[in-house]
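With this grant's support, we have settled on a layout for protein records. One resulting record is reproduced below.
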Amino acid sequence: MNPAALLALAAVAVPLFLHFFNLRQPRTVEFSSLDFVKELQESTVQRVRIKEWLLLLLRMLAIACLVLAFAQPTLTSDLGGMGASVPTTHALVVDNSLSMTANGEGGSYFDQATRTAEGVLETVEEGDEVLLWPTARGGQSRPDPVSNVGVVRQALANLEPRAGASALSRAIVEAAGQSDTPRTVVYVMSDLQASTLGDSVATKVPDGVSVQLLPVKTRTQSNVAITDVTVTSRIAEVDQPVQLEATLVNHGPEPLDDYVSSVYLAGDRVAQATATLEPGLETTVSFTATPQTRGWLDGAVVTEDDDVPVDDRHHFTLHVPEERRVLLVRGEGQRTKYLDLALSSEMIESRIAFRTTAIEENALASAELGQYDAVLLAGPRSLSSGEVDALTRYVDRGGGLLLFPNAQARPEDYNALFGALDAGSFRGFSGALSADRTVASFDRVDLAHPLFEGVFSQERRREDASVEQPDIHYVMNFRPSGQSGQTLIELSNGFPFLHEVRHGGGRLLVTAVAPTRDWSELPVHGLFVPLLYRSVYYLSASTSVAGEQLVAGRPAELRVTGVAPDASLRLRRPGGIEVTPEQRTLFGATLLQIGTTLTEPGVYDVQAGTTQVRRVAVNVDPAESDLRAASPAEVSETLRTTTGAPVQTVAAAEDEEIAETLRTQRAGTEIWNVFLLLALVCLAVEMLIASQWTPETVSS
């Protein structure tokens, strides 16, 4: 236990050094006769040499035994009863991940693990310490080793499976690091789930730590997991269809035909779909749901019951805005009666959540654009450099901008805005105002674009869908550029009628005509109002209509916009318990630092005071759903590589045999006292021989 002390073994050479270099030098004595020398018996000389070598050996052995005693050696053995005197920390790593809720031959995996842990506690002896280390602690503080086994038994009885478990190798390293006794044994009770076995980065345990694997009895499980739910629609509105996609994985051994999954919104089932799931493969299932209310709606995709029910529900959130704040900027000399009528309360009533603010062109420079979800530029005649910069920043930060042209527009001003947004360039006009001649017509409409969902009665994405053709007398010639643009409606003259530009976090929609009958007959056609509404919907949805989806028990960051910088935000759990995460203010947002406290799957409310500002979905880690277990040999090799500790698998036929099996494998009897006794014996014998030994004489 103190290997550095073995360096002192070099002192064993000291008696040997003194023996060879401190011998008496012979003197030359003149004798008149050699008769006395001849009388020396050769046997007498040999006895002298034997005694000298014996003393030398005793001195060297005494030093070596003293050094070994200070090195604190221990004796390991597979014989029962050994190792009872070494202070040992028994670290119980109990796998309480959600995969342990599955049932095996001896009951649920978790029940088997707790029974095994009880067996380990029976082997704890006086002077030992015990540490209970769950793999899923839910943000709780690190437990410390205790000498009271009863405290550990109570903690073990209160332990439950939960989300957010760490990798098995990480749990072993963390548990081993809590011990300060001469010897630590880490007992691992787990289903040895392969998908959550180890981290990619190896972390070594301290010296003197050994690992004992006590796997539970598992069996092949039939389980379907929902690994992801995506809201593919960019626009969410009451009584309007919303498209969703769910990714299902069949972790069972058999294919599943006509497998049913359902979508719930605000507690009501609103959609259902069937699919064939092949073993081990991902399958994407599409749904169409129609929200009936506004606000942040809690949703879930639910699958059929199987062997592991904890992952049969995948939560998501859907945001149907309470209102969309729209700024209408009237260009100088522009008539906007059709826009005003379309956005008026008489037209909208309670069906459309628009709150429109109208200003004149000369008030644009002083407008606070960040207060609005969408800005409609109804034919501005000129745009100053400051206004161009403000509009560019607005789009870059997630705003939506809709531009209608002005016949008296300054080309350099429009091109300054287009250039800042990498949109394209203004190339003049075609046709004549208030003319009877049509200069262009709709040539191609991208019906697959989200903006057109629900605008036309024909099915979405059909190429032969007929689109109403308004007479167009006068158009702006806009030439797109850059890689971030997309033409939604193209005219027969090759220029766009409606073109989208994505820049930063926002979007710009450029229309080729002003909303007056001088330019076209569009304002009096049935297409105008739905196209305007969908454009505003699309532009005001600067972010996804779905809220964030977090993994239970995993650290995350949440960026919340639309709240005061000094607002204190809280997270309300499904059970009503509130959590106040660490937060800091960013430019235009508040960043919440979410630790590992969100361990319960469900929908969490983000609240500022009594106001709900957002909802967040928390789901089970998809890796928990793959219940395939690695073999003990594979686990031993993986843990040996990642932790650097010796790993041994302990297999007992029955739970009650665990304690006896472990007793026979315990090791670590301290034998420093044996070496100290040997050193004292060697010194005593050396003193006895040295004191009783007299020089050999020869009789005359």
